[in-house]
Design goal:
Elements (H helix, E strand, L loop, with lengths): L7 E4 H6 L1 H9 L4 E5 L2 E6 L30 H8 L13 H6 L10
Parallel strand pairs: 1-2
Antiparallel strand pairs: 2-3
């Protein structure tokens, strides 16, 4: 039975400043013990064999179809963005014609 070699001990500062070199050693099969004030804080060990990542073509969206109407700005969108819906009416009077002509709302005769 073969004993695993003892892990290489490094302090937190050394691990921080030389992380890429430590990761190279881990990739080579070594285990690194990171210590803080002489106590083990973490272990870096080789990852189990994983399936290699499959590279997708640039973008990877060739099978994706946009839903119909995806680019329409709806009333719900306006509420989400602005908190109100502009119905094309003059905001002070509610008179659509006044907005178009710039005229003031006519006074209602008192009865």
């Amino acid at each position: 039975m073969t004993a695993e070699p003892a892990p290489i001990e490094v302090g937190v500062y050394q691990a921080k400043t030389h992380l890429s070199q430590l990761l190279d050693q881990v990739a080579a099969g070594k285990t690194i013990c990171i210590t803080r004030h002489g106590r083990t804080a973490a272990l870096l060990s080789p990852a189990p064999h994983l399936e290699p990542l499959v590279r997708r073509p640039f973008g990877g969206w060739e099978d994706y179809a946009l839903p119909e109407g995806w680019d329409e700005f709806t009333t719900k969108d306006e509420l989400d963005w602005y908190g109100h819906v502009d119905l094309g009416q003059d905001q002070t009077t509610g008179d659509d014609e006044a907005k178009k002509t710039g005229a003031k709302r006519s006074e209602q005769p008192s009865a």
